[in-house]
Write a structure and sequence with these properties.
Elements: H1 12-21, E1 29-33, E2 36-39, E3 45-47, E4 49-53, E5 66-74, E6 85-87, E7 92-95, E8 99-107, E9 110-118, E10 123-127, E11 131-133, E12 139-140, E13 142-146, E14 152-153, E15 159-162, E16 175-176, E17 182-190, E18 193-202, E19 208-211, H2 215-228, E20 232-236, E21 249-253, E22 256-258, E23 263-265, E24 268-272, E25 275-280, E26 283-286, E27 292-294, E28 299-302, E29 306-314, E30 317-325
Parallel strand pairs: 2-9, 11-18, 20-21, 22-30
Antiparallel strand pairs: 1-4, 3-7, 5-8, 6-7, 8-9, 10-13, 12-16, 13-14, 15-17, 17-18, 19-24, 23-28, 24-25, 26-29, 27-28, 29-30
Length: 330
């Protein structure tokens, strides 16, 4: 809990603004944006914007504005003696205690306000996977936050940290990228509240890549391999099985088809014995970028009619995907 902050006395700037109001431009009302706000951490804040308007709704220039806060409710016995929030001359609001306050702006004989609620979580936890394969594909961790009454809070700002970014870094939205086998601890913090999750990243064996699959189709093929105890081979139409290949459940995929300007997000799945094991973050290249361009992450888009191949590489394994770009309307 942050230290209780006594209410600040009215500044000389406020008295100056009141003096200027008596002889300066006049306003009918002041519009404050946003009209309501919620702050979910002590010391956090927002910046409010105020626009003085005349009776016809036109902006009035040259009005000196002053800002102040007034507590309307709080968790202490003597609310009126403490600042839930403070506000500076530029409309920047900073929170100090749980409770509610009006941030009031005045000038030109008019006032406007924003109703501010400060609710700092009393409980934090993390949900999500505890083990990941070193695929490079992000996995999401989710923040669970509750107030002192046990009510869920949404959009709570937290600081994310991974104890070993070389194993799995984490971004500001909770996306964890498993890069290398090992262990790391992902921690979140809001004020003096913290939560953590121990995360293990495992290596896995694979011997190939399957391209052009949807996650649903990959799961179905993996299920077939488990249920039938058979090899599953994903092949591109026209290539056929390699010489001497063992019998297998065979899936024949057509080449990827695009039109100029059309884009597609591609996926790559590591395979073992032909069966998909896990989606991986492969690096993609195009044999003819003038026909099909592709980002390293696998977003491809047609450039001009023609045929080419896209190549995906993960670790020491690579695979190619034929692409046909047709003319528009054909």
């Amino acid at each position: 809990m942050a230290a209780i902050r006594p209410r600040a006395p009215r500044s000389d700037g406020v008295w100056l603004a009141l003096l200027l109001t008596a002889c300066g431009p006049r306003a009918a009302r002041i519009v404050v944006t946003p009209p309501k706000a919620r702050i979910l951490d002590h010391g956090g804040g927002i910046t409010l914007h105020a626009v003085p308007l005349d009776a016809q709704g036109r902006e009035v220039k040259g009005i000196q504005l002053s800002w102040r806060s007034r507590t309307t409710s709080c968790d202490t016995a003597a609310c009126e003696d403490w600042d839930i929030v403070t506000v500076d001359g530029a409309g920047r609001v900073t929170s100090h205690e749980n409770g509610k306050a009006d941030v009031v702006v005045s000038g030109g004989g008019a006032e406007g306000k924003c109703e501010v609620t400060v609710v700092v979580p009393a409980y934090l936890s993390l949900t999500g996977p505890r083990e990941l394969w070193a695929t490079g594909v992000p996995a999401r961790l989710t923040v669970i936050a509750k107030d002192e009454g046990g009510h869920f809070l949404s959009d709570v700002p937290v600081r994310w940290q991974s104890s070993d970014p070389g194993v799995a870094p984490v971004d500001a939205r909770g996306n964890v990228v498993p890069l290398a086998p090992g262990k790391t601890v992902v921690t979140i913090q809001n004020g003096d509240r913290t939560a953590r999750v121990d995360l293990a990243v495992r290596s896995f064996d694979f011997d190939g890549l399957a391209l052009g699959l949807t996650p649903e189709l990959a799961d179905a093929l993996a299920g077939i391999a488990r249920a039938w105890r058979a090899a599953v081979r994903v092949e591109v139409a026209g290539k056929g099985p390699p010489a001497g290949a063992t019998p297998a459940v065979r899936l024949e995929l057509p080449p990827l088809q695009l039109t100029p300007g059309e884009d597609r997000t591609l996926t790559a799945f590591a395979t073992r014995g032909g069966a998909p094991v896990a989606q991986v973050a492969a690096a993609w290249t195009s044999a003819a970028p003038a026909i099909v361009a592709v980002t390293p992450e696998g977003v491809a888009w047609g450039q001009a009619p023609g045929k080419t191949e896209l190549t995906a590489r993960f670790g020491k394994v690579e695979a190619s995907l034929p692409v046909l770009v047709g003319a528009r309307g054909k």
